[in-house]
Backbone:
């Protein structure tokens, strides 16, 4: 789960990480009032979206008066920001962050993330702050330094000093960096984060270090342990169908194809998408209803994928180990009858009570195409997606 910048800074501020003074606004008038309360001669107006590159898309602008803050906020709020990290529709802006400007002396990149191969938290730093770190890594790898935090020993002082020297910091700033890294590591572990990124981390003219921008990703699997963080989720920044799927505890990711998939088990779902591709088709989604699903959950999953206008066929691939095939069949029947969809449905059921499941589908008198194997199911799904209306892909 991603946090907005203003939420990330509030979280980090609670751990003593220095961040700019500012607040989020939901309407232009509120934005002006925040600027007036902050005082000063300049303010930053920053669109709050879950996407990088917003500055180049007009989502970060400087204002020289409270009236200009109000005007810029009015332009951003209600608009959609399109960047390299969004779809063509972009991300909607429902809040803007108003901050006092900072006098920047230097900019750096700093992040903490989970390196699953090493089983360690990795600290990645570079003197190329404010830039696209992926391009820096590809073109100038020597400008990136990485340290790994031992889970037993924790962050060591020599590691902080090593990063400080690599960034070219003076003695005073190296000391500040060591304190900052300790606070960031504590925040990372305490909140089960997957990514904590400061880009840029800056030194202020005549002052210390400050997190000018902050991005935080939280491990979804840990959210039950952090209800306060789960409450910060912004459904408007998610794909509408993905947000709906979460409400029913479904694992769903939208794709660009026209063959919808409903499968129980992540590995089986990946294999199903692979075999659709092998037979010349394009999957429209990843959807894992889980190993212990029931008819209601299947019904909701079915409605979800059937609501995608680009879908031309639906492939149901269920292995009844924990879940019974007759329950899956009941869910399919309920969903088809409730939605009234006329899309071809290809069903491949195997496992517990499979014969009863197939019998229920046949007795329901629905346009469900039975498949004997996964290869047969994929072949029929691709044929159904390519068929013109009225043709029988059997």
Residues:
């Amino acid at each position: 789960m991603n946090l907005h910048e203003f939420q990330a800074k509030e979280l980090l501020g609670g751990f003593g990480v220095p961040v700019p003074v500012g607040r989020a606004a939901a309407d232009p008038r509120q934005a002006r009032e925040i600027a007036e309360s902050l005082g000063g001669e300049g303010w930053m107006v920053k669109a709050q979206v879950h996407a990088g590159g917003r500055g180049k898309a007009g989502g970060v602008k400087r204002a020289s008066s409270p009236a200009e803050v109000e005007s810029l906020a009015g332009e951003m709020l209600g608009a959609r920001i399109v960047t390299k990290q969004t779809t063509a529709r972009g991300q909607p802006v429902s809040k803007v962050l108003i901050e006092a400007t900072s006098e920047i002396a230097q900019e750096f990149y700093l992040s903490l993330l989970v390196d699953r191969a090493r089983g360690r938290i990795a600290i990645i730093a570079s003197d190329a702050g404010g830039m696209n770190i992926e391009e820096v890594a590809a073109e100038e790898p020597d400008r990136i330094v990485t340290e790994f935090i031992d889970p037993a020993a924790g962050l060591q002082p020599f590691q902080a000093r090593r990063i400080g020297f690599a960034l070219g910091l003076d003695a005073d700033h190296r000391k500040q960096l060591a304190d900052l890294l300790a606070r960031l590591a504590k925040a990372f572990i305490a909140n089960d984060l997957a990514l904590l990124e400061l880009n840029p981390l800056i030194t202020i003219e005549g002052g210390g270090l400050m997190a000018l921008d902050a991005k935080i990703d939280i491990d979804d699997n840990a959210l039950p342990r952090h209800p306060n963080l789960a409450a910060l989720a912004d459904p408007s920044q998610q794909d509408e169908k993905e947000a709906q799927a979460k409400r029913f505890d479904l694992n769903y990711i939208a794709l660009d194809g026209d063959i919808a998939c409903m499968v129980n088990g992540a590995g089986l779902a990946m294999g199903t998408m692979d075999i659709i591709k092998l037979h010349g088709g394009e999957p429209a989604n990843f959807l894992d209803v889980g190993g212990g699903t029931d008819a209601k959950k299947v019904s909701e999953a079915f409605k979800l994928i059937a609501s995608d206008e680009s879908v031309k066929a639906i492939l149901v691939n269920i292995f009844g180990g924990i879940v019974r095939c007759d329950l899956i069949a009941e869910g399919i029947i309920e969903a088809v009858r409730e939605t009234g969809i006329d899309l071809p449905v290809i069903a491949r059921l195997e496992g517990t009570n499979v014969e009863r499941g197939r019998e229920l589908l046949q007795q329901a008198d629905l346009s469900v195409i039975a498949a004997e194997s996964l290869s047969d199911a994929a072949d029929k799904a691709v044929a159904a997606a390519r068929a013109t209306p009225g043709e029988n892909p059997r």
User: Anything to note?
Assistant: Residues 357 and 363 are 10 Å apart (CA to CA).
